[in-house]
Amino acid sequence: MTKMNLFSTTVCAVAAAVFLAGCGKSEPGAPGATTGGSSSGASGEVIKVGEFASLTGKEATFGQSSHEGTAMAIEEINAAGGLLGRKLELVTEDTQSKAGEPATVVNKLVSRDNVVAVLGEVASSRSLEAAPICQQSKIPMISPSSTNPKVTESGDFIFRVCFIDPFQGTVMANFASKTLNAKKVAVFTDVKSDYSKGLAKFFKEQFTKNGGTIAGELDYNGGDKDFKGQLTAIKSENPDAVFVPGYYTDVALICIQAKQLGLNVPFMGGDGWESEDLVKIGQGAVENHYFSTHYHPDVGSETSKKFVANYKKHYNGKTPDALAACGFDSAAVLADAIKRAGSTDGQKVRDALAATKDFDGVTGKITINEKRDATKSAVILQIKDGKYKYLTTVNP
Amino acid sequence: MEWFFQQLINGLALGAIYALIALGYTMVYGVLRFINFAHSDVLMLGAFAAYFVTPAIWKIFPAQSITGALLITLVTALLCAGMGILIELLAYRPLRKRPKLTVLITAIGVSLFIEFTCQHKAVFGSKTRPFPQLLPMHDFHIGNLLVNSNDIVVLGVTVVLLVALWFIVQKTKIGTAMRAVSFNMQAASLMGINVNRIVSFTFGLGSALAGIAGILYSMKAPGIEPLMGIQPGLRAFIAAVLGGIGNLPGAALGGIVIGIVETYAGGIAGVSNYRDGIAFAMLIGILIFRPAGLLGKTTIEKV
């Protein structure tokens, strides 16, 4: 037995030595790969980029869109020759739209897959869960579309390529008081979601500053199915409009039940509404309501138009939504930073990311500010005949 | 005042659904003395069964017709009854002679098994799907109150099913056998009652009710997903305990009470996110002050 053990140990040691030597040899072939032996040993020829997204579950279309955008960006970069002479590989993990999952899968991405950076998530609560892990291991993380300000406050390795909720809340509050001429607005918040609570807070602040009154502040829990109790209370306040900063599945059911209760005022929301499923589930009940989001395929720069055309070619004529565009941008900004850093070292990539200025993204010019957020414009859309109609662009 | 009555209507419509689910919990408890936690998943399976059956039935009968809706409900109820019988046969019957705790834990396992199997891509996937509108919708105005035809359908169906259930349990031979088994399983089998058949029947009946409750629930909130049963299931369980577990009218009463309390709580700003907390506080309160439930009888356990 001891002999066997000794033998197997020797075999392992030899194998390890050969493997390490092999890696060492391939190292010079990769220009600029100056990272320590241990991390580049695992990433080898390709640069591994981690992604975590809600591919299934309640917010499945968020993750799917975002993933499609990200994956397409990675493919385009590889088709153009890759980065630092190496190809990119996207390692994607599913968070199932559930709390608790992001921590597990991001830990796996960081410790087992040895990714150089992490891209994700759409929902702020889930980005907030993963951020401390990336921060601790000094792996840059870029959230494509989490808008809660707290996300990037997790540490100096956490970035985002979208606007934040103080801006989005202000945009919708101004829209309510100036365009809709609303004096009384009810706010209906998902208390389970950091995104919803944050957006509701910033909306209320701006709307009261505009001279409006908040008529009724009601709460629900994401995943609830019956909202009639709250909606009846909202209706008895006779608001001019209702602000629901939630996610599309809940919003669709809320609109259906509001219609059943005869609450026929405009509903407004944020980028959490953006999903084809909002119309599929909500059908007629979501007609004529408004929401703000990151971009609209019909308006935008040349980069944006090119992206829409490529995306349609890539995904059988599907029109990219804002989350796909943000997903694309997150990967593009990362690639740009790695190129400028000339390395995949966490610290160097982080510094390059922080220095991102006027990057020509699909969702507009991206400049990362000192809080590691992107300063960008928002668009307001209206749901008309089951389609998202572009109304206006609001600049910061 | 208008607010009060509107909420009462909302609460009744919600409570009626809880009542239907609670009946299944309470019936199984009455016969086998354990909580079938997989019951809430039968509700979900019922919603999905209706989702898949509807297009087929609408090919034969016009869409949104009453006959079509009835037929969809019937097929769903039968499928769910079969599912309930199958669950009992595979998971609970082999454990009939084991301690009750074993069966209870198995029930939790069955529940998780169904939920997570159904979330797999090859089964239903975890995406929310739009539930078809089975009946045309109308609004009825009574003064300032607005009653949706859906709510009336929910309440009507519940009342009919409650009466039918009462009739089955009290007036039919199989109902008498059910009651006999719930009194004393051994004695009942000595009297020539086929206990296995009665247990299967109980599961079938309870699951059919859960399936119909699934349809009604999906008519209220037309987005269905594999975890949709958990919340109403939990509340119906509270309702069953509140009314006195094992007691049929108690389960119905408990369901209505929970539905109404939850709706009123939801309609008060500042309290609306404590809805679940209030429901569970009621459960704790009833367990402390009246452990047998509102309509339950205190039984003395022989040691």
What is the topological layout?
The complex is a heterodimer of chains A (396) and B (303).
Chain A: H1 2-26, H2 37-43, E1 47-53, H3 60-79, E2 88-94, H4 101-111, E3 117-120, H5 124-136, E4 141-143, E5 158-160, H6 165-179, E6 184-190, H7 194-209, E7 213-220, H8 228-236, E8 241-243, H9 248-260, E9 267-269, H10 276-282, E10 290-293, H11 302-314, H12 322-341, H13 346-354, E11 359-361, E12 364-366, E13 378-384, E14 387-394
Parallel strand pairs in A: 1-2, 1-3, 3-4, 4-5, 6-7, 6-8, 8-9, 9-10
Antiparallel strand pairs in A: 10-13, 11-12, 13-14
Helix pairs in contact in A: 3-12, 4-5, 6-7, 9-10, 12-13
Chain B: H1 2-32, H2 39-60, H3 66-92, H4 100-119, E1 129-130, E2 139-142, E3 145-148, H5 149-171, H6 173-183, H7 185-190, H8 195-220, E4 223-224, H9 230-243, H10 248-266, H11 275-289
Antiparallel strand pairs in B: 1-4, 2-3
Helix pairs in contact in B: 1-5, 1-8, 1-9, 1-10, 2-3, 2-8, 2-9, 3-8, 5-6, 5-8, 6-8, 9-10, 9-11, 10-11
